Amino acid sequence: TRQRNPASPARFSKRIGSAMAAAVPTGSVMGSASSKQHMSAQQHFDSIRAEVEAEKAERATWSKSRAAAWKLVNSGAFSISMSVLIVVNMVFVIMEVNWNASGIETPFWIKTVNFVILSVYFGEVSLKLFAYRRAFCRDILRVVDLAVVSVDIVVTLAILVMPVSLLPLVLARIARILKVSRALRMMSMFPELNVLMRGMLFALKTIMWGVVLLIILLCFWSIFATLFIHPIVQDLERQGFWESLDCEQCPRAFASVEMSMLTFCQQLV
Question: 15, 45, 70, 265: which could form a disulfide with 131 (CB 3.0–4.6 Å)?
Answer without folding.
Answer: 70
